[in-house]
Amino acid sequence: MNTSAKNTHNLLAGGERATKQKKALAEMIDSSDSFQSAQDIFASLRSKGENIGLTTIYSQLKLLAAQGELDYMKSESGETLYRKCSTVQHHHHLVCRGCKTTIEIEPPGFEEWAEKVARENHFSDISHVIEITGLCEKCLSHRN
Ligand SMILES: [Zn+2]
Ligand SMILES: [Zn+2]
Ligand SMILES: [Zn+2]
């Protein structure tokens, strides 16, 4: 990220390599609209000559998903599949606890309400995380 870090190359060699790998991974996710498994992404990156480990991919995907940058779901075979969130705009997720199917939601009026409440209590620089979890239709029918 910071190109002026070149002077300290010896110290940061590992870090720079890791940053380059993360960038390649981010580009790979950006370039696709469909859900992909870590294995799929690994294969694509390898075929492009990127020297990135599967473990790195797994941990990065998990991290990005936890930060809300990626949507994820479970495939039929139980593999976790990831996809870039359809919008970079602030939004929220409705997530199935059973299969991890993720639906992007925008609670009507919520953002305005959150701003108002914060302002009324003299808070600034506010943020929030909303994730609604439950069971989707498919998972509920499996249960019964
Ligand atoms: Zn999303
Ligand atoms: Zn489900
Ligand atoms: Zn929000």
Calculate Rg over CA atoms. 19 Å
Low-confidence parts: 1-13
**Major pleated sheet:** 3 strands, antiparallel
Question: What share of the residues lie within helices?
Answer: 40-55%
- Write down how many β-strands occur, each being a DSSP E stretch of 2 or more residues: 6
> H/E element string?
HEHHEEEEHEH
Spatial shape: flat
The CATH architecture term of the largest domain is Orthogonal Bundle
Number of domains: 2
| Average pLDDT reading | 84
Any idea of the CATH class of the largest domain?
A: Mainly Alpha
Q: What ligand species are in this complex?
A: zinc ion
Strand arrangement in the largest pleated sheet: 1-3-2
- The chain-level structural class is alpha+beta
CATH homologous superfamily caption of the largest domain: Winged helix-like DNA-binding domain superfamily/Winged helix DNA-binding domain
